Amino acid sequence: MDNPTNKSKEFLLDLLFPKFCLGCQKEGTYLCDDCRALLEISEYSYCLCEANGKPKRLLTDQPQIGKCNQCRNKELSGLYFALPYKEKQLTKKLIYQFKYQPYLKDLAKTLASILIEHFVLSKKNTNDIWENRVLIPVPLDKNKQKIRGYNQSEELAKELSVILQIPVISNNLIKVKPTKPQMELKKEEREKNLENAFQLKNPEELSGKKIFLVDDVYTTGSTMNECAKVLRSSGVKSVWGIALAREE
Ligand SMILES: [Zn+2]
Ligand SMILES: [Zn+2]
Predict the structure, then answer these.
(1) Which of 50, 115, 189, 229 could pair covalently with 185 via S-S, beta carbons 3.0-4.6 A apart?
(2) d(Cα 136, Cα 227) in Å, to the nearest integer?
(3) Model pLDDT for residues 174-230, shown as the tens digit of each residue
(4) Measured in angstroms, how far is the CA atom of residue 49 from the centroid of ligand 2?
């Protein structure tokens, strides 16, 4: 990976397309240390549900517990996220540029390192959490992926995979119909929108596995929930979510 050819390629790319901090425009990286320090990377665990319009904090020091009693029947076992989406303009900017023009695909490295910092701060950097797990990115439909040229969730999963040393499987869970953004829809339309949108190509490959579903933003949770439903119907052991940011 870090061979001399790659290094010189990177050097040339930097000359041709210098990186600028998305926070302060300083040259050299997409996120300089000063701007990174301004992000409030979460050190706590939260349930899938909300209390008073905010994600409900889990009052446990066991990161293996991902949800409260009321949520025990939900498809997802829990959600790890590093940043609140609304709080900082910079968070929005990082995610926006990761997905839209000029398509800073490379941002995946920076964003993965933010997630890793969250895992460390919230004591989720233990073997029992990551052992025998598989990362699965939330898929895009074919057209969307063609326009963007990549699936941002897959890029994020690939970077996490390198650091956490767990495999990514990105060709099994697929999206078979385009959907509208869930945020734009009324509650009753949301379910219909996602109905039969996801499929597994090879359910046997995942049977008995513990899955981490990766996405850039967790908004209403309905997309991840639908993916989790499809995965669980094929006999996977558990499905947790990982998102860089959570909308609140
Ligand atoms: Zn900066
Ligand atoms: Zn809950």
Answers:
(1) 189
(2) 10
(3) 999 999 887 788 888 888 899 999 999 999 999 999 999 999 999 889 999 999 999
(4) 4
Q: How many independent structural domains does the chain possess?
A: 2
Q: Which ligand is nearest to the CA of 24?
A: 1
Same domain, 12 and 121: no
**78 and 104, same domain (yes or no):** yes
- pTM for the full model? 0.91
Residues 26 and 52 in one domain: no
Give the C-alpha distances (Å, rounded to integers) separating 213 from 114, 138, 139, 224, 243: 17, 6, 10, 7, 8
Which ligand sits nearest to residue 65's alpha carbon? 2
Asked if 155 and 105 count as a contact pair (C-beta separation under 8 A), the reply is: yes
Q: What are phi and psi of 70, to 5 degrees?
A: -65, -25
Question: Among all ligands shown, which has an atom nearest to the Cα of 221?
Answer: 2
Question: Tokens standing for 205?
Answer: 């490959």
